[in-house]
């Protein structure tokens, strides 16, 4: 009988495994076709225009919209059924984050619609249809993720696998399209800046995709065209967050989960004042540095060199602080004796893989800069600051990744440390009656009444008497017992106080690193990219090879900072 049951189980799981493999291959081919089409448009391939790329993306979004509508309708008809949920997936703060990015993405779509209206005489109709479709897609997808990100699908599993993986790679292609469009804009600005730094030997050819006609209202066109590129970073983060949430949903299809109580971990500002203050100082100074950098870079050679020097010195200081904070947190973990949670968790596994995978982007850029500094024949003064900066980027990500991954795998404490009232004692007619057992007795799983003992308070100054007037031996015995209880409680409270202090330090470190990662996300997301502007790497590696490396690695580096901030927010809630 057991063999029969086992073979039945294996036979049932085999088709689902095949469906998982087939759906993943479908998604990869979908993505590669779109990636090749995007690349062909970027290099101005013969016969490939932007309208072809947008038509492909519109088709993918429409298919996803049909699938999401079908899923939502089916869910409404089965809303009375009890469904399994993955409590680790789709956290509320993650949903709030993606909603914020989605709102800014809708503003971006409205700018694109306005831009199309102003240039409608010479733009393809697909450039007007795309932002409208994308806006509808964004609204429905955010609603879908709010309602169903935690679902563990157990019916129509094969069909759902294809629908979810289609959604994952559709968002990845939209992310790729946004990254490429924003990178081309940054590249044009970068080529112009290199002239001011004295790199005249680099051929400057602007890659212009601007419409070949005049705008109907010049002022509006300028607002739309400039505003679009400032909003792209939020659109890029929106699509990558959506794809990760959908990927977790795909991994959860057909999964069997253990039903256990999930402890809620709300975010609290209490106890993290120090970390927040230092983090806000870093955030404010970073915004100021970015503003000055964008104003000064490209104005003249001296101003550009001063802007680069200012950026490097500020980044070196911030990265050194982050390394120190991470090392302190890891030392605290080494002093604690807590086990790790190794249970199956697709969301946590994906978080760890994304941290290491996306960190490789900035590691690639850092090693390229280090190699360029070593091999270059001439070294302008400001380029020497790039060496400690690049080394610290590598070290900081090593330390931070270790801290975050260990934090999200540590088991959460089940005992509430905020309990301050340990006993409730009522004094009546010279006797005490314990209404609640001591904290230590609760912690050990037994009450005072189970052992027949009456707890004492303040080293026996007030002792419980069972019969109003006990003998001196009983009083002495109870006093000795109370002293033992008090000494034991004092030892427990001391340990508990040390634990609370460690937790407070860890929460402050997590809050500080959270704000620091948001701060370091801002410069590359909004055009402050010294990897483009210092010019040394272009001389050593060649202009086009280095630009290709930067354009491939920079999106991962930008995403790493936002994903790290999200993970550190979760660490702060969990600690």
TrEMBL record:
Domain of life: Eukaryota
InterPro entries assigned to the protein according to its UniProt record, in alphabetical order: Otopetrin (IPR004878)
Topology term for the membrane: Multi-pass membrane protein
Record GO cellular component, one term: plasma membrane
Record carries keyword Metal-binding: no
Swiss-Prot/TrEMBL GO biological process terms: inner ear morphogenesis
GO molecular function: proton channel activity
Transmembrane residue ranges: 26-47, 53-72, 93-117, 129-146, 229-250, 271-295, 311-333, 354-379, 505-527, 539-560
Keyword Cell division in record: no
Keywords: Cell membrane, Hydrogen ion transport, Ion channel, Ion transport, Membrane, Transmembrane, Transmembrane helix, Transport
Principal localisation: membrane
Compartment(s) of residence: Cell membrane
Family, as annotated: Belongs to the otopetrin family.
This protein's name: Proton channel OTOP1
Natural source organism: Aptenodytes patagonicus
């Amino acid at each position: 009988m057991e063999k029969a049951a086992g073979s039945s189980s294996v036979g049932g799981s085999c088709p689902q495994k095949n469906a998982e493999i087939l759906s993943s291959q479908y998604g990869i081919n979908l993505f590669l076709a779109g990636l090749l089409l995007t690349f062909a448009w970027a290099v101005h391939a013969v016969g490939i225009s932007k309208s072809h790329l947008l038509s492909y993306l519109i088709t993918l979004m429409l298919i996803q919209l049909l699938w999401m509508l079908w899923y939502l309708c089916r869910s409404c008809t089965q809303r009375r059924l009890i469904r399994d949920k993955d409590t680790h997936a789709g956290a509320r703060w993650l949903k709030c984050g993606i909603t914020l990015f989605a709102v800014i993405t809708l503003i971006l779509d409205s700018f694109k619609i306005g831009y199309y209206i102003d240039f409608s005489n010479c733009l393809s109709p697909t450039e007007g249809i795309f932002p409208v479709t994308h806006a509808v897609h964004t609204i429905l997808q955010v609603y879908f993720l709010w309602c169903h990100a935690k679902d563990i699908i157990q019916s129509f599993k094969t069909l759902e696998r294809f629908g979810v993986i289609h959604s994952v790679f559709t968002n990845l292609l939209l992310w790729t399209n946004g990254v490429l469009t924003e990178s081309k804009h940054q590249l044009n600005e970068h080529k112009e800046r290199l002239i001011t730094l004295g790199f005249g030997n680099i051929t400057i050819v602007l890659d212009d995709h601007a419409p070949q006609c005049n705008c109907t209202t010049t002022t509006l066109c300028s607002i739309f065209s400039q505003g679009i590129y400032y909003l792209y970073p939020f659109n890029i983060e929106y699509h990558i967050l959506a794809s990760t949430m959908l990927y977790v949903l795909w991994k959860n299809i057909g999964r069997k989960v253990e039903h256990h109580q999930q402890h809620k971990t709300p975010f609290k500002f209490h106890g993290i004042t120090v970390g927040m203050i230092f983090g806000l100082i870093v955030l404010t100074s970073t915004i100021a540095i970015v503003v000055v950098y964008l104003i000064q870079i490209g104005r003249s050679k001296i101003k550009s060199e001063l802007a680069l020097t200012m950026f490097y010195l500020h980044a070196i200081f911030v990265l050194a602080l982050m390394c120190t904070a991470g090392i302190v947190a890891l030392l605290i973990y080494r002093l604690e004796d807590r086990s790790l949670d190794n249970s199956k968790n697709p969301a946590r596994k994906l978080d760890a893989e994304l941290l290491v995978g996306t960190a490789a982007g900035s590691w690639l850029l850092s090693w390229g800069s280090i190699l360029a500094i070593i091999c270059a024949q001439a070294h302008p003064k400001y380029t020497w600051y790039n060496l400690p900066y690049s080394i610290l980027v590598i070290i900081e990500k090593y330390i931070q990744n270790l801290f975050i991954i260990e934090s999200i795998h540590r088991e959460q404490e089940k005992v509430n440390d905020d309990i301050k009232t340990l006993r409730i004692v009522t004094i009546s007619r010279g006797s005490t009656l314990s209404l609640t057992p001591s904290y230590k007795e609760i912690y050990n799983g037994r009450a005072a009444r189970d052992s027949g003992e009456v707890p004492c308070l303040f080293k026996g100054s007030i002792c419980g008497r069972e019969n109003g007037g006990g003998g001196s031996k009983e009083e002495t015995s109870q006093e000795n017992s109370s002293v033992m209880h008090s000494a034991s409680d004092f030892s427990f409270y001391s340990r508990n106080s040390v634990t609370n202090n460690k937790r407070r330090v860890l929460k402050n470190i997590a809050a500080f690193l959270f704000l620091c990662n948001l701060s370091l996300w801002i410069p590359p997301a909004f055009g402050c990219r010294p990897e483009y502007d210092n010019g040394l790497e272009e001389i050593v590696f060649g202009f086009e090879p280095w630009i290709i490396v930067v354009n491939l690695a920079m999106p991962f580096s930008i995403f790493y900072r936002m994903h790290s901030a999200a993970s550190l927010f979760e660490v702060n809630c969990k600690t």
